[in-house]
Amino acid sequence: MILRQFFKHCANPKGILGRVMLRVMNVGHEPPERKVRALIDWQKHWHVLDIGCGGGRNISEILKLVSDGKVIGVDISDEALRYSHSLNHAAVKAGSCKLFKASADHLPFQESSFECICAFETVYFWGDLSKVFAEVLRVIKPRGQFLIFVECTETGIWDKIVPGMIAHSAEGIRLQLLKAGFESVAVVNIGSGACAFIAHAPVEK
């Protein structure tokens, strides 16, 4: 019961426990996420969207890779947005980082806005993947790359103790991306059941 009370903040961090969870995720997820970020040939002029930006660690790291671009973060959690703002205060002030409260299935951006869109450890909480993937395809540029990282790709202990979490199979995610209209999907084994997906948007959408 106590664990479930803490882990409910994985999906929508709130209050003191939410801030603790954001700190834990920033530190604990960084080793595998560093490997995942290295899968992309980042270009310094890119505009990048991080969906479910959480504590903002990936935003801060990607900002270093797109020095002439911008990184936009969205999250449904006010606590996460405050935490991300604090971590990336200088970039927000400079205008190279912006943060918005938004859900993955309703992104407040125009069509073809981003060269790369990322989703680290958040797909579990999206519900209808087909709806979200269609929305991602709408706002990504032609030939853009959609990078997904999940540590849990099969039913196990985590989806039993984390409220609202759904562990999707790697093949299920791959097929949903193709069905949504992405041209190709590379699946990379990160180890210990973790997977990264790099989905490429078509030349013409």
> What is the CA-atom radius of gyration, in angstroms?
16 Å
Shape: globular
Order of helices and strands: HHHEHEHHEEHEHHEE
Distance between the termini: 47 Å
Helix content: 25-40%
Structural class: alpha/beta
Q: Give the amount of beta strand, in percent.
A: 15-25%
Give a quick account of the main beta sheet: strands, pairing sense, barrel closure: 7 strands, mixed
Average pLDDT works out at 90
Number of strands: 7
Strand order of the largest sheet: 3-2-1-4-5-7-6
Give a description of the structure:
This protein is α/β, with parallel strands linked by helices. The protein contains 9 helices and 7 strands. It has helices at residues 2-7, 15-28, 30-37, 57-65, 78-87, 89-94, 129-139, 158-161, 170-180; strands at residues 47-51, 70-75, 97-101, 114-120, 140-150, 184-191, 194-200. It has a 7-stranded mixed beta sheet with strand order 3-2-1-4-5-7-6, with helices on both faces. Helix 4 links the parallel strand 1 and strand 2 (70-75). Helix 7 (129-139) crosses helix 9.
